Structures are given as structure tokens and as C-alpha cells.
């Protein structure tokens, strides 16, 4: 009778048999924590300014947006917040899809849909911040 | 007795699981709102009228309640995220993880009670006009 063998902790499972290993999951784990910390300030600050300061959401209109985006400070705030929040959220959704979609095909197509729509929103938002015209219409 | 191997998730019951479940639910909710929010903001490239028309829905009482929910979801996600970071990186984090759950619950209430009051005051004033 032989003693049961226990796999070495963190030995590569399935993948990596070819010797090709990537640290992508480590970097994505780290990115969630770093972007999360930055987003705490950017998003809670944004929510406080937009919903609580002065008249809250009641005072928001085109002129209000024009006033804010006249300043490079708020343009940068919104741009960094857009990119970090979208990448943070997309990576979170990727994790959730990997957890719950069990069929390979389902997982693949859900993630494709996620990546394409996220890329669209990031590009659209970036374009809007950079091409904003206060004298439109 | 047959032993079962846990698959899928790491947490099985208790407050550790529920904070994790809430983290996922609030995260997904905020992510979907973010999509909508970038799209409505993009209307500033169409015309001031189109933007103001859509933003008007954010000022209605029912949507104002949803905004309170949004703030609550973001705040929970932020606080619990900080707790997760402390559990991961602070040597004493795992020992105090349950205490930190109570701290964030308390902090959440301390911010949400006056925050909800303030957001609702804006809504009521817009509906009935502010009294001096």
C-alpha cells in the first residue's frame, strides 16, 4: 500500500504543461486593488459633488457640464475615472463569467460580448470628453 | 459519509460569504449603471436639448430613490473593497476581518443616513419649491 501523494501547492493545473505560463491573473488581481483604491476617491468624490453638493442632481444640465469640462482638472478626473472604472468593472465581470458560465462556448461568447461593449463605451466616453463643444446646437 | 469537493466558490456560509455575495451584486449593478451613464452623458455631443431632456429623468422622485441605491451600492463596494485589501496586505487583516465588517457597516450607516436625507431634500424641494 502506497501513501497518497499530495500535489505540490500551486503546481500548474492542465495549462502550463507546455511550460507557457503567464502572470496575467496575478496582474489583474493587483490591478483590481490599485484601481479600486484610486476609484474610492474618484467615484465617491464624483457622487458627492453630483448628488449632494449645492442642488445635487437637480442642478445638472448642459450648461453645468460645459462649466466643468472647461477645466482640464475635471476633464482629467472624468477621463481617469472612466478608464479605471470600465477596466475594473470589465475585469470583475470577466471573473464572474468565468465562475458561473460552465460551458466553454457560453463563457467565450459572454466574454466577447463583454469586451466589445466595454471597448465601445470606453472609446465613446473618451471621444465625448475630448471633443466636447460648449457651443454645439 | 460521502465527502464532497467544494467547487466554484471559496466561501461557504457565514458573514464572509455574504459580504462577498454583496460585493458581487453591488459591483455588477454599478457596472451596468456605468454603461447607461456614459451613454446618457454622450448626448452632450448631440445637442443641449437632448442631454437636458434625458437628465430630467434623473431628477424625478423614483429615479432619485434609485440614485440613493446607487450611492449605497458604490459606498458598500468601496468600503468592502478596502476591507478586502486590508485582509490581503495587512498582517493583522485576517484576524480583524469580522471586526472590519462591523466597522464598514457602521460607517455605511453614518454616511447613508445624512446622505439619503440630503438627496431626498433636493428632490422634495424641486417638487414643491424650497421654503425660506
Rg of chain B (CA only): 20 Å
Low-confidence stretches of chain A: none
Fraction in helix of chain A: 55-70%
The class by helix and strand makeup of chain B works out as mainly alpha
> Strand share of the residues of chain A?
under 5%
Question: Architecture of chain B, CATH level 2?
Answer: Up-down Bundle
CA-based shape of chain A: elongated
The number of helical runs of chain A is: 4
Largest sheet of chain B: none
The percent range for strand residues of chain B is under 5%
Number of separate structural domains of chain B: 1
Along the chain, the helix and strand elements of chain A come as HHHH
Number of domains of chain A: 1
How many distinct beta strands of chain B?
0
CATH topology of chain A: 3 helical TM bundles of succinate and fumarate reductases
Biggest interface, chains and residue tallies:
A-B, 40 and 43 residues
Verbal overview:
The complex is a heterodimer of chains A (137) and B (132). Chain A is mainly α. Chain A has helices spanning 24-51, 62-69, 72-100, 104-131. Chain A has one domain (25-131): 3 helical TM bundles of succinate and fumarate reductases. Chain B has 132 residues and is mainly alpha-helical. Chain B has a single domain (17-126), classed as 3 helical TM bundles of succinate and fumarate reductases (Up-down Bundle). Chain B is 76% helix and 0% strand. Chain B is built from 4 helices and no strands. In chain B, helix 1 crosses helix 3 and helix 3 (61-89) runs antiparallel to helix 4 (97-128). At the A-B interface, helix 1, helix 2, helix 3 and helix 4 of A face helix 1, helix 2, helix 3 and helix 4 of B.
Amino acid at each position: 500500500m502506497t501513501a497518497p501523494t499530495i500535489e505540490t501547492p500551486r503546481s500548474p493545473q492542465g495549462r502550463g504543461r507546455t511550460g507557457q505560463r503567464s502572470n496575467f491573473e496575478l496582474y489583474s488581481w493587483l490591478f483590481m486593488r490599485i484601481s479600486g483604491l484610486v476609484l474610492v476617491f474618484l467615484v465617491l468624490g464624483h457622487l458627492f459633488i453630483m448628488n449632494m453638493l449645492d442642488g445635487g442632481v437637480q442642478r445638472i444640465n448642459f450648461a453645468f457640464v460645459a462649466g466643468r469640462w472647461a477645466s482640464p482638472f475635471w476633464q482629467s478626473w472624468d477621463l481617469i475615472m472612466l478608464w479605471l472604472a470600465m477596466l475594473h468593472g470589465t475585469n470583475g465581470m470577466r471573473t464572474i463569467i468565468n465562475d458561473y458560465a460552465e460551458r466553454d462556448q457560453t463563457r467565450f461568447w459572454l466574454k466577447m460580448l463583454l469586451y466589445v461593449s466595454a471597448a465601445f463605451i470606453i472609446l465613446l466616453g473618451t471621444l465625448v470628453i475630448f471633443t466636447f463643444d460648449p457651443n454645439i446646437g | 459519509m460521502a465527502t464532497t469537493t467544494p467547487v466554484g466558490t471559496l466561501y461557504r456560509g457565514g458573514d464572509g460569504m455574504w459580504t462577498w455575495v454583496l460585493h458581487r451584486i453591488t459591483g455588477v449593478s454599478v457596472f451596468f449603471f456605468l454603461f447607461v451613464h456614459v451613454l446618457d452623458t454622450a448626448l452632450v455631443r448631440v445637442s443641449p436639448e437632448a442631454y437636458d431632456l434625458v437628465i430630467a429623468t434623473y431628477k424625478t422622485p423614483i429615479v432619485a430613490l434609485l440614485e440613493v441605491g446607487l450611492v449605497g451600492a458604490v459606498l458598500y463596494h468601496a468600503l468592502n473593497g478596502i476591507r478586502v485589501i486590508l485582509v490581503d496586505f495587512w498582517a493583522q487583516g485576517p484576524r480583524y476581518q469580522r471586526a472590519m465588517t462591523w466597522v464598514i457597516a457602521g460607517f455605511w450607516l453614518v454616511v447613508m443616513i445624512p446622505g439619503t436625507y440630503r438627496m431626498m431634500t433636493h428632490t422634495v424641494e424641486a417638487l414643491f419649491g424650497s421654503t425660506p
